[in-house]
Amino acid sequence: MTASDLRVVRGAALLKQAEALRGVYVDAFCAPPWNEEVERAAEFVARLRKEAFGPGFTAVTAGGEGRTSGFATARTTPARLPAGRCYQQAAAALGAERTAAWLCGAREVAELAVRTAARGTGLAAALLAAVAADAPGGRVWLLTSVRSPRAVSFYRRQGWTQATHPAPEGEGVVVFLGPRHPARSLAALPQ
């Protein structure tokens, strides 16, 4: 994987790739451990069409010869967290003050997906680094589910700091702060 294999794509140019991204989404998330229904891929494309022109939206795609092998998307988190997508769990775990200071106005990595065939190649790490690279002040974060210990472990290996700790039963979501996020040292303290 080289930097030349990655492309930053925004707006209309990204929407031209919507079907290819949907295919990557199905490959990545409709299999274990996520086991999402295929209909969720259509919801992802609808969300993408709405967000592609929104504040701070950016995407990085990877692939060649007509086949997209992975992508990452990010956006600026609004001052008030939206409903859905587990934001309320994250806000409850962090508290209102930390949510506002650490997440709101920061770049949120919304999606990171890599085709099964491209796993273990370094592609996910390259996509994550590329979509987070120019986050203002290093303020970048993401949510993931503890349903996938592999995902949680991946983000830790990439230098991301786990800022929330869900119940030990393995349910819920965790917030990770990026490697240059100014609140990393605060998040690493016992909560």
Task: Give structural notes.
With 191 residues, this protein is α+β, with helices and mostly antiparallel strands. 36% of the residues lie in helices and 22% in strands. It has eight helices and seven strands. The chain has helices spanning 11-15, 18-29, 39-51, 87-94, 96-103, 123-132, 149-157, 184-187, and strands spanning 6-9, 58-64, 67-76, 107-114, 140-145, 161-162, 173-177. Strands 1-2-3-4-5-7-6 form a seven-stranded mixed β-sheet, with helices on both faces. A hairpin with a 2-residue loop joins strand 2 (58-64) and strand 3. It starts with 5 loop residues before the first strand and ends with a helix.
Taking all residues together, what is the mean pLDDT?
Answer: 90
The H/E string reads EHHHEEHHEHEHEEH
What is the makeup of the main sheet? Answer: 7 strands, mixed
Strand order of the largest sheet: 1-2-3-4-5-7-6
Low-pLDDT runs of 5+ residues are none
Number of beta strands: 7
Number of helices: 8
Instruction: Name the helicity range.
Output: 25-40%
* Intertermini distance: 38 Å
Radius of gyration: 16 Å
Characterize the overall form: globular
Strand content: 15-25%
Structural class: alpha+beta
